[in-house]
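User: Sequence in, structure out. Go.
Assistant: Echoing your sequence, followed by the structure tokens.
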Amino acid sequence: MKHIIVKSLLITSMVVGSSIPANNVFAKKHSLKTQHLSSLTFNNYQMKGKGTKGSKISVYHGKNKLGSTTIKKSKFTFKWSKLKTVKNNWKLKISATKKGYKKATVNMTVFVSSAKTKTPKATSTVTKIVQPVKKTAYLSGSTLYTEEGNITFANSVRESDGVDGTNLLVFMTYTNTTNKMQDLSSIVYYDCTPTQNLGAITKELDISSVDIDSQYYDMAQVIDGEEYVNPGQTVSTVAAWTLDNPTTPVKIDLQAPSVYKSLGSISY
């Protein structure tokens, strides 16, 4: 009789035990946290907002992705080059994804000023004197000369982004040659378009920020902290982009607001 009772207990234990994994799976499906995506604004071709730290934020116009970045802070500012293509009344979709969280999506219509300055018609004949055209922006060696100042590009390193990817860090020295304060992050992320040739496709890299545990964190704050450089001052800092492939070379095309074409490129 005792032998029969022991067998019964073993069978019961096996049945109960086999039901635990199923309960765990059911619990996981219903334990996703809610992430926030709010305070979204689009101004001067920049997207600003607030999200959950560590979320990957992507911006779409229809099926066309304008950019995607994993945010390191709750507040974010995107200055992707593709945002320069946004037209008035475009409907954009902004989505946020993060492991363990429900996907958050916000749709918004953006407004871009299309006002143009009218040129008055001439009322008399004017003889034009052709003056030599002065270069407003050009690349010489490893230095980019622009109306907003001069950037000299130095070496680079590749290191962890602090989440699950790899950053390319590019060291540079900037001199503000203007008579007003300059937002260096806006200049760098507009003037520089980094890409990686991945074989079948070439991808533009997402803007990133230097991980707080990196030895270059303090140095990067001029750009990551969106600090302003005073007139006549020179600073050394570092810009970061997320690599699609940790080992593939990166080509950075350089341009400037006053010249709507590539001024050259630097490879790392």
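User: And one key feature?
Assistant: The chain has two domains: 33-109, 138-267.
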